[in-house]
Amino acid sequence: MFLLAGCFPMEKEKEIPDYMVYGIMIAGKPVQHLVVDRIYEPAGAPTGPFPEAEVRVIADTDTIVFEKQDTFYVNQVGNGWAQPLRKLSLEVIIKEEPHETLRSTTLIPGPFSIVLPMDGDTVDSTDVLILTPSDSAYFYIGFVYLVGDTVRNPPLIITDTIFPIFSYTSCFQRPGEYMIKVYAYPEEYYYFLVKERSNIENGFGIFSGCYEDSVRVYHP
User: Fold this and answer.
1) CA distances from 106 to 113, 159, 193 (A)
2) Phi, psi at residue 145, to the nearest 5°?
3) Are residues 26 and 70 both part of a single domain?
4) Distance between CA 30 and CA 78 in Å, rounded?
5) Range of the domain at 142
6) What's the CATH code of the domain at 29?
7) Do residues 97 and 200 share a domain?
8) pLDDT band of 41, cuts 50, 70, 90
9) Mean of all residue pLDDT scores within the chain
10) Is the same domain home to 94 and 35?
């Protein structure tokens, strides 16, 4: 789910922030991850360790603390607070000078389900993917891969709840059992992907939420 690192091409006339944040809170997942890093010049290399920070998410009246583990900040009880249609507020306090505070908010999209195909169905190029709508979702991203294969196809941008996913023959090149995973995302993540529009106050990056569903199907 992590689609970027700490090096971004930034237009010279724009003020370049010092820090970036990347975090997608997945509804119902027990472990949630956030990346906090410095922003380097294009083609630059890291000049030191990842910055130390206090990282917390506020969900209603709950304050959730993220602990640093290697290159991530991690919370191990995400299934208790990362719930559909819950508003989340992020606060990252950088411990090094000048002690900047990065902030953001998001709303995890509502639940949805894959109606067709059903788990265990056999599919061909005439079938379509049908989803129930997700409240507050702006778009969906689909992943299709052969179960047990290390090769991953590029993600599919899904903008409607009826989508001809099985006409993408590059996703189904061999017979076998396939996993279809679909993620619902809010608007800010779409504009981050297509326009590099950040929603991090005093920094750059994205803090967002998503809801996922999946099925396994067979392709002859």
Assistant:
1) 21, 20, 16
2) -150, 150
3) yes
4) 4
5) 114-186+212-219
6) 2.60.40
7) yes
8) low
9) 87
10) yes
Same domain, 170 and 63: no
Report yes or no on 7 lying in a domain.
Answer: no
Q: Which residue has the tokens 């304050």?
A: 63
The contacts of residue 112 (CB under 8 Å, 6+ apart) are 131, 132, 133, 134, 137, 182, 184, 211, 213
State how far the Cα of 211 lies from the Cα of 83, in Å rounded to an integer: 9
Give the integer Cα–Cα distance in Å for 122 and 42.
Answer: 47
Task: Please report whether residue 89 resides in a domain.
Answer: yes
pTM equals 0.86
Report d(CA 18, CA 15) in Å as an integer: 10
Total domains in the chain come to: 2
What pLDDT was estimated at residue 3?
A: 44
Question: Does the structure show a pLDDT above 90 at 174?
Answer: no
- What is the residue whose two structure tokens read 């990842």? 50
